[in-house]
Amino acid sequence: MTQQPKRTWFGPATLVAAAFIGPGTVVTASLAGANFGYALLWALVFSVLATMILQEMAARLGVVTQQGLGEAIHQHIASPMLRWGAIALILFAVVIGNSVYQGGNLMGATLGIAGVTGTPQPWMPIVIGGIAIVLLWSGNYHKLERVLIALVMLMSGAFIATLILSQPDWGAFFSGLLVPSLPAGSVLTVVALIGTTVVPYNLFLHAASAAKKWSGDAALADARRDLVVSIPLGGLISIAIVSTAASAFFGHAVQLEGARDLSEALRPLAGDSATWLMAIGLFAAGLSSSLTAPLAAAYALSGLLGYGANLRSLPFRLTWIGVISVGMLIASLKLKPVEVIWLAQVANGLLLPVMALFLLWACNHAMLGAKRNTGWQNLMAGVVVLIATGLGVRSIGAALAFW
Q1: How buried is 181 (Cβ within 10 angstroms: 0-12 exposed, 13-18 middle, 19+ buried)?
Q2: Is the pLDDT of residue 303 over 80?
């Protein structure tokens, strides 16, 4: 049995926060604040709650069964046709989809560095991809966890400090946070905010990493404590970005086209320190997601094919190397980051409701024994699945309309 580590407030759920606070989230949250002010902050509160419901199920699956979601699908779907159908779908949406996301992650980290140096360097995505390769090649889960916890702490400090420096309208802030509203033309932005937080590949990442970290029913308390700290912290980062953009852009005759514009706009509003903090936060968001996207793809594919979750095995390493390599290629093609993010959302829209159903099935399976979902947990998860289905349809439609 796995030796229990000493108790800590941060663990695998921090990897989930590191994964969903990427450049796509920074761009989407910035545009939400610039276009609608503080009015859509409530959507992030809902997103955090939905994420906690799904990720609690994923963590419970990992802790109780000592398996990731991919391994559960491989071992417990009896029909070969259904099993290989699931493998094909996840191969397309997680592995290929994450390869596209990886391009956006590397671009985002590069833009963060450019915010400090003043000039984006075409070779920087290769350097950042190389850093990700070195860290993942170590095959040391606990080292990766510590690096990602540090990056989440760096993001938290940078984005929250930037928010304070931007001097937000606190009355409008709390109104947007607590009172749901849908300003004209905001529906797709709400969909995008939810879609950047409730990320399907995080179900694979969380279940497998929880199995690495903990074992036994007693460890569920540790997993849940980690969850209620890390996921709201990630949501707080998103809220800070929306609010900073609202302070800098909403109601002003300035157009925001990307996260770098937000960094530049903060200079007259809050000085050079805010610009640097935003750039540091964007770099940390890009680098953290550059680690979690290939790691999640490797966990998913290795589990589905029955190779297990050995971070030093050849199949595991080949998967994440492939994801990073494709991401570096995409980032080097000088594509517009927003276009890359929209393309990745197509895969996200296809995968999210299906993966939520797979997780719901797994958490009602006999393999969890007495830790299977209760009726209340099934009700909450069912609501999230319905919303995820609507989100998937709308995000696909929005992406197709964009193209």
Answers
A1: middle
A2: yes
The owner of tokens 């450049």 is 23
Gap between the Cα atoms of 164 and 358, Å rounded: 41
The domains of the chain are located at 12-402
One-letter amino acid identity for 142? H
Backbone dihedral angles phi then psi of residue 145, each to the nearest 5 degrees = -60, -45
Q: Which amino acid is at 341?
A: I
In tens, the pLDDT along 1-52 reads: 444 445 566 788 999 999 888 887 887 888 888 889 999 999 999 999 999 9
DSSP reduced 3-state for 214: coil
Phi, then psi, of 51 in degrees rounded to 5: -65, -40
Q: How many CB atoms lie within 10 A of CB 146?
A: 13
- Cα separation, 393 vs 387, whole angstroms: 10
**Structure token pair of residue 42:** 């409530």
> Is pLDDT at 345 greater than 60 in this prediction?
no
Amino acid residing at 314: L
Which residue in this structure is represented by tokens 């609501």?
383
User: Rounded to an integer, what distance in angstroms lies between the CA atom of residue 33 and that of residue 240?
Assistant: 10
Structure tokens at 249: 């852009």
- Tell me the per-residue pLDDT of 213-257, one tens digit each, with 9 for 90 and over: 888 777 888 999 999 999 999 999 999 989 988 887 776 545 555
Phi and psi of 387, rounded to 5°? Answer: -65, -40
pTM of the model: 0.85
> What's the distance, CA 312 to chain centroid?
24
Mean pLDDT within 93-105:
77
Angle between helices 23-36 and 272-304 (to 10 degrees): 130
Q: Which residues contact 45 (CB under 8 A, 6 or more apart)?
A: 177, 235
Contact 17, 206 (CB under 8 A): no
- For residues 201 and 204, give the distance between their C-alpha atoms in angstroms, rounded to a whole number: 5
Give dist(CA 97, CA 323) in Å, integer.
9
Q: How far apart are CA 111 and CA 368, in angstroms?
A: 44
CATH of domain 12-402: 1.20.1740.10
Contact criterion met (CB below 8 Å) for 267 and 274: yes
The DSSP secondary structure of 248-264, one letter per residue, reads HHTTSS----SHHHHHH
Tokens of 57: 């199920």
> Who contacts 130 (Cβ-Cβ below 8 Å, separation ≥6)?
none
